[in-house]
């Protein structure tokens, strides 16, 4: 049974725990997880040998830290998962600042302890309640973060403005004994950044003109874009100097890493079949975009592109199956149906703007198929030779059987498809065969019309 008063707490709770700071608490719990071999950040993939070791070191060193990376690199998710390093519940005085029952720092907490002594009421705070997050915006003020005088509170208490209990505390003091996260730190106005100096260096804040000094117990963590986090960007250099560790995040380094993230995050109905070559091609679109000179690389290409595209590909396959009465199996043409999920995720350079977002997205899809095809090593010599003889393949819309019958005219195409597809199901076989063709288009061996394929030298309208 949890203690309800300070007296009960003294008798039933290990008081040594109340002497720990929030960084001590996270450090001890992290050490225990490491000893047990537990996974530290569930749902975070691709950072096992890079970001996570740096995070562990910063936590063991009891440092405030910042995650630097472009959009869609799981920075916010990492910060929010830090609550798993805190105790499930901690006791506190029933005050705005969730004062430590043994060492209150607020005027209200000190008064409560002096008046009630062992009868002071105790509340229990969950780990989730101990995480406070603020998205930095240019209009954020010092009062928002630290606090200000509150005439309404003073009037209600019947005291003057000089009464310390008339202070309205900001987000940072209210995060006392917890984690305070600021997203996009460089977007704070310089004077607000300066207001953070004290809490980072001396561990205390001063509010307005009040003669009060609050030695807060707060773990400060931040995120920022590397482009802004420079002396030439929007960051105050002395603030950088006061942050313990600067940890760089990154996009998935392999298609498999990206695939695990997208499979975890994307909504895909159970009945929709997404063959491996489709999933890999979806991931390859983002990889191609991160290398394309028409895309602004300083803005980054978020992992959300792959997640959104995978969802739209599944939806396109489901829509086709409902209309045709077939099994919902995703095909390469569904990636072209997913262009709206790509165009909104790209920040284009001048050349890309001239060509248009849809043209750039279509080129990226074609290049993605070309990146993935060599993984399967299908035999394609006879397929390319057939088209070099001047033949044209037009795929009929609608019937799967009609499309497969048309593909039988291309020597080696269905054989190459069967080498990919473990299933002999007609919808899966068609998806594999279409992927082989699209892969050859992506590798500039064939040219593609809306639903037709021909030799590359007959139509040279692709490229970057």
UniProtKB/TrEMBL annotation:
Check the record and name the Gene3D superfamilies matching this protein: P-loop containing nucleotide triphosphate hydrolases (3.40.50.300)
GO MF terms here are: ATP binding; protein kinase activity
List the GO biological process terms. Answer: regulation of DNA-templated transcription
Note the InterPro entries from the entry. Answer: P-loop_NTPase (IPR027417), Sigma_54_int (IPR002078)
What Pfam families does the record tag this protein with? Answer: Sigma54_activat
Task: Please state every residue range assigned to the domain named Sigma-54 factor interaction.
Answer: 168-225
What is the recorded name of this protein?
Answer: Magnesium-chelatase, subunit ChlI
The organism named in the record is: Thermus scotoductus (strain ATCC 700910 / SA-01)
